[in-house]
Design a protein that fits this description.
6 helices; 7-stranded mixed β-sheet; two-stranded antiparallel sheet; alpha+beta
Length: 177
């Protein structure tokens, strides 16, 4: 089941951190290499992540989309409305112990379904050219490469090491066989 969280207070932070555990471990290594206790360094990275969500992320047009099955948070992404009909996704991640089960594809397809009920839209993402699993995931969900240079709509930066990916929905597309 897809859950859309539009306020920080709605999140179950511990369940969300289970999804982002690997990314937070990498962040801890990058930002806190001087902290000998790696579990403490992980907690610092998680604190930074939660602080970002509480202070910066949640504003009008922003939501967290989470795929949940049997109360297990499997996969998540952040969704930002850039302008009418244009959405940007970031931080697509799946719990490390539930990867290679198609959960990220299921999440993307569920998000597409929800957005399709709101009318025509373009959904964009910026993915590293070296992140083959994410590129395959997006392709399976119906995304195409629209640019050889990615664009991060939040930082407003062009990213030459990324592809710009998009999914376009129009009512005519839904009617296609």
């Amino acid at each position: 089941m897809l859950f859309e969280f539009t306020e920080y207070s709605q999140l179950k932070k511990n369940k969300l951190m289970e999804i982002y555990r690997q990314g937070n471990l990498e962040t801890a290594d990058r930002l806190y290499p001087h902290v000998a206790d790696r579990r403490f360094a992980l907690r610092l990275a998680e604190r930074d992540f939660i602080d970002f969500l509480a202070r910066d992320f949640f504003r009008p047009g922003c939501s967290y989309m989470v795929l949940v099955v049997d109360d297990v948070w499997l996969s998540a992404l952040r969704l930002t409305l850039v302008e009418e009909g244009l959405y940007y996704i970031e931080a697509l991640e799946t719990r490390p112990d539930r990867r290679r089960e198609g959960n990220a594809v299921r999440l993307l397809r569920a998000v597409i379904t929800v957005l399709s009920h709101r009318g025509p839209f373009i959904l964009r993402d910026c993915v590293s050219k070296e992140n083959l699993p994410s590129l395959r995931t997006h392709r399976k969900a119906g995304f195409t490469v629209y640019s050889d240079v990615g664009y991060d709509y939040l930082s407003r930066e062009h990213k030459p090491h990324c592809y710009g990916l998009e999914y376009r929905f129009t009512p005519e597309r839904e009617a296609e066989p």
